């Protein structure tokens, strides 16, 4: 009997899975930092930013998907945004990153998917972009596609992502609440030995009046720490085990972190902002292990720093260096909370002969209360 492929396009929060009701970090009093989130506590709190998911499930072997992040609702190739990519640990396949850092701009939506699906996703993205109005004479596109390896829960060698999945994520992208956990590119990921997934958060960067929003595809390892409490060790999954050669072996994986802001930043200051995301990752207990691909993609949506294609000169108004510190703080806090959300919202998944359990919410709550974690 052939089991049909099930493709789910998720625009808001997914339906609850029986027995696996999940909560975001703030529902447990986990609210890192000093700044307040935006109304959705999501990357879509940055005006104009859209997120779409296509979640792909096929029988008991395929659990993967595509997540699309669009900086604005127009044609990104014709109306580009300044951008930068920061490499925390370069064990990964981030397609298109060299041109982004060379030119300092993003000319395509950002796609997240699984490792062996990067090139299929990129091809589908290019095809979709070439069909858009005003693209009739275009002969070069730099698609930005990032990945983590979900091969434990997903039959990754089958490369199950199709053009339809990519188009579903792109056309379904919305500015509202963002689905988290085991959805889209997070359908088959594992983080800190628990089911990982997509997480998001935002911060209003103090007196600047600007917003920083982040989204993560969490598939990494380490010693899970929540608000300074070694929750991973308390739950018996500290992240490091004795390897067969006597050394410490980590459960490494990868994490992609996307940072959006409406602050008018140059690509130079976006690179500085992106580098601070690694501090938020470190707060959760990751050391960017040897086999972990840890990448940050940052962009600004502010109208004053947009770059129309073919413009011979740029006249922009950007934020000065002295105003960057609140944005740095905001991205550190946002990344930390987004990773917690990815874990706490993820549902258990069995696939490809492996089962990843959802982190036990009530046990996490009890551990934090017992250890006197700040609320």
Structural class: alpha+beta
User: Count of DSSP helices?
Assistant: 7
CATH class: Alpha Beta
**Can you say what the CATH homologous superfamily is?**
L-amino peptidase D-ALA esterase/amidase
**C-alpha end-to-end distance:** 52 Å
Record keyword descriptors for this entry.
L-amino peptidase D-ALA esterase/amidase, five-stranded mixed beta sheet, 7 helices, disordered N terminus
Care to give the gist of this entry?
The protein is an alpha+beta fold. The protein has helices at 97-103, 118-130, 163-171, 231-234, 267-283, 325-345, 361-370; strands at 5-10, 50-58, 62-70, 79-90, 105-106, 110-114, 144-148, 190-191, 194-195, 197-204, 211-219, 240-242, 248-250, 254-261, 293-300, 307-308, 349-351, 354-356. Helix 2 (118-130) packs across helix 3 (163-171) and helix 5 packs across helix 6.
Describe this structure in words.
The chain has helices at 97-103, 118-130, 163-171, 231-234, 267-283, 325-345, 361-370, and strands at 5-10, 50-58, 62-70, 79-90, 105-106, 110-114, 144-148, 190-191, 194-195, 197-204, 211-219, 240-242, 248-250, 254-261, 293-300, 307-308, 349-351, 354-356. It has 375 residues and is of the alpha+beta class. It has a single domain, classed as L-amino peptidase D-ALA esterase/amidase, CATH 3.60.70.12. Helix 2 links the parallel strand 6 (110-114) and strand 7. The model is unreliable at 1-7 and 9-19 (pLDDT under 50).
Break the fold down into its secondary structure elements and pairings.
Blueprint: E1 5-10, E2 50-58, E3 62-70, E4 79-90, H1 97-103, E5 105-106, E6 110-114, H2 118-130, E7 144-148, H3 163-171, E8 190-191, E9 194-195, E10 197-204, E11 211-219, H4 231-234, E12 240-242, E13 248-250, E14 254-261, H5 267-283, E15 293-300, E16 307-308, H6 325-345, E17 349-351, E18 354-356, H7 361-370
Helix pairs in contact: 2-3, 5-6
């Amino acid at each position: 009997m052939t089991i049909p492929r099930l493709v789910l396009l998720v625009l808001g929060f997914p339906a609850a899975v029986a027995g696996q009701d999940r909560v975001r970090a703030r529902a447990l009093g986990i609210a890192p930092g000093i700044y307040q989130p935006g109304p959705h506590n999501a990357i879509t709190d940055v005006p104009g930013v859209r997120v779409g998911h296509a979640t792909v499930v096929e029988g008991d072997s395929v659990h993967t998907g595509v997540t699309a992040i669009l900086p604005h609702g127009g044609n990104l190739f014709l109306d580009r945004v300044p951008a930068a990519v920061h490499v925390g640990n370069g064990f990964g396949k981030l397609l298109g990153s060299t041109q982004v850092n060379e030119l300092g701009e993003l000319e395509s939506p950002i796609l997240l998917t699984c490792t062996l699906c990067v090139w299929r996703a990129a091809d589908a993205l290019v095809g979709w972009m070439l069909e858009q109005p005003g693209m009739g004479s275009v002969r070069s596109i730099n698609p930005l596609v990032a990945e983590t390896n979900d091969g434990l829960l997903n039959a990754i060698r089958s490369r199950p992502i199709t053009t339809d999945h990519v188009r579903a994520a792109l056309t379904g992208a919305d500015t509202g609440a963002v689905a988290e956990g085991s959805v889209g590119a997070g359908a088959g990921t594992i983080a800190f030995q628990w089911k990982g997934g997509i997480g998001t958060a935002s911060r209003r960067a103090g007196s600047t009046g600007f917003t920083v929003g982040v989204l993560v595809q969490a598939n990494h390892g380490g010693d899970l720490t929540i608000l300074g409490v070694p929750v991973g060790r308390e739950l018996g999954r500290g992240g490091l085990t004795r390897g067969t050669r006597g050394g410490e072996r980590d459960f490494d994986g990868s994490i992609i972190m996307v940072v959006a802001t409406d602050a008018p930043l140059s690509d130079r200051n976006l690179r500085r902002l992106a580098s601070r995301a690694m501090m938020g990752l470190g707060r959760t207990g990751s050391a960017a292990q040897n086999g972990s691909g840890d990448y940050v993609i940052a962009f600004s949506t502010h109208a004053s720093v947009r770059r129309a294609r073919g413009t011979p000169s740029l006249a922009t108004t950007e934020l000065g260096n002295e105003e960057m510190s609140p944005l740095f703080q905001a991205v550190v806090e946002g990344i930390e909370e987004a990773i917690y959300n990815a874990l706490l919202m993820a549902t258990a998944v069995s696939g490809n002969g492996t089962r990843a359990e959802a982190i036990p919410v009530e046990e996490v709550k009890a551990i934090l209360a017992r250890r006197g974690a700040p609320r």
